[in-house]
Write a structure and sequence with these properties.
The structure is a homodimer.
Chain A lengths: L8 H23 L8 H11 L6 H12 L4 H22 L9 E2 L2 E2 L1 H5 L1 H20 L8 H25 L6 H26 L4 H28 L2 H4 L5 H4 L5 H5 L1 H18 L8 H12 L3
Antiparallel strand pairs in A: 1-2
Helix pairs in contact in A: 2-6, 3-4, 3-8, 4-6, 4-7, 4-8, 7-8, 8-9, 9-13, 9-14, 13-14
Chain lengths: ~300, ~300
């Protein structure tokens, strides 16, 4: 299988701009958090991890999914902010000593290293209801809100379920079915939710929502398999987080269960399925196709 | 100030029945969680704390607030379940070693003692999006959902903010303003949210929602002050959780800041303000008045 190159200068320019637009909106949003008062340290901990950067792939996905369905940036932004809050919550809690025990994330000390475990737990705990508050204050018609809340809630629950299976899986033998369960829940579910959120915010027709849901699910699986492969093959410096960690703690990873070659092949297969899901959108969806390509070509 | 006795047999019979009705619905809801599969341990941890009992004051408050506004049990139930999920999440996380480090809750070992810290964190993390999923699947008209989500999200955020201030406050001198901030956020906000949720689910008029919001806020403050007093004066056996803990870890409590006598007086004052807020509901609200009385008369 060959992968068509869509990552041309136009795509890269768009993606950088889309990240930047989101980052600007996110920074403005975070700037409005209280900087003094009895909970100043909590808000600082929230801001620290939210401002730590990252690819912002999830919020860009929300905004682009909305656009291909005829929606605006303004309609998609609350859901995009909400998804990044949920993603950040998951990173803060996953890094805790009781969980994956990571000291480094995006090249910086993790939240609990800087703010202590109590505040790291609470920063994550604050971000989740905040995400739902953002959805409820959405400028889209009220009848779209239940769909938005359901999509984000189910994506978040699945992610937590995946993390629980991931933690339990560290103490058991490598199991192909378990790896698939973990990847589906831990990663693919939230990327799927991103696409559904964007489409729902835009008021898309059910078949558009379904097509984008499929795209997000396959994209998510491709992403997580690629992530496992990177953990095995890339350096800590390139990753901005501890490399080789998965094998060291006996994580259930795709390469551990299926081998490196089969993992790369499956990632490409999921990529193709993601591309196929977008057929009905025509060239409108080229940027999303580029995102799928970006996901399996990335080196960090 | 004297407190009228509404805690007659009729009230007690009603409250026991209301708790039982909620418990039955909650148990049925929890029974539908997966009992096998890779995340079985997570769902078991969730069920363990949800089934641990407690007074169920919050969900009963939701249901009764809905009823005084002309709403039905069915309309209020999703929000009642959601609030108890949020309350349970907060107990699980508050008990963690990095937070209040409690081994005992409602007379049973705390979640992390039984399931380990990782699963206790994740059980809490699962309950929050689950609560919002319940609200979004509400049988009430879609236009009420944004209000429900906002009320629960703001109540939950405030609670987390209060817990953060509570943790930080353990390392500073007793401060009256700080105690008031902590109690307002940590406890009163969610009880206020309960009342708003019930009223909103019932489609109540704005002045009814406001009256119940005030009732919930004063009730919450009365409750937390009484709780502080109990921690100081009752036994571990009577409480079902470690007594005298607050003073031992230098918690910012009402009695520590204001003294025991002033605390009892303030609790009664908040009780009266809660009663006053219900004036426009007439005898319809007698059960709610009884709840306020129950809160300041309780011994555990």
């Amino acid at each position: 299988m060959t992968i068509e190159t869509r990552l041309d200068d136009d795509w890269l320019t768009w993606f950088q701009q889309a990240r930047q637009d989101f980052d600007q909106a996110f920074a403005g949003h975070l700037d409005r958090l209280p900087q003094t008062g009895p909970a100043a340290r909590l808000y600082e901990a929230v801001g620290y991890s939210c401002r730590a950067g990252g690819k912002r792939a999830r919020p860009v996905l929300v905004i682009e999914a909305a656009r291909v369905c005829g929606g605006t940036f303004e309609q998609a932004l609350p859901a995009a902010l909400a998804v990044e809050c949920i993603h950040t919550f998951s990173l803060i809690h996953d890094d805790l000593p009781a969980m994956d025990d990571d000291d480094l994330r995006r090249g910086k000390p993790t939240n609990h290293v800087v703010y202590g475990q109590a505040h790291a737990i609470l920063a994550g705990d604050w971000l989740v209801p905040h995400a739902f508050a953002l959805l409820a204050a959405n400028p889209v018609p009220a009848e779209r809100v239940p769909g938005l809340v359901t999509a984000l809630a189910e994506g978040t629950k699945d992610m937590v379920v995946g993390q629980a299976a991931d933690i339990t899986g560290e103490t058991t033998a490598t199991d192909k079915q378990l790896v698939a369960f973990i990847h589906r829940n831990k990663t693919a579910a939230l990327l799927e939710a991103c696409c559904v959120l964007g489409a729902t915010a835009a008021g898309a027709a059910p078949q558009q929502v379904d097509a984008l849901r499929k795209f997000g699910g396959h994209l998510g699986l491709a992403f997580q398999i690629a992530d496992d492969v990177l953990d095995m093959t890339a350096s800590t410096e390139a990753l901005g987080k501890t490399a080789g960690k998965d094998a060291a703690v006996n994580k259930q990873t795709w390469p551990a269960a299926f081998g490196l070659e089969a993992s790369n092949a499956r990632a490409r297969q999921e990529y193709q399925a993601a591309i196929d899901a977008l057929a009905s959108f025509g060239h409108q969806a080229d940027r999303l196709r580029g995102m799928a390509e970006f996901v399996i070509r990335r080196t960090n």
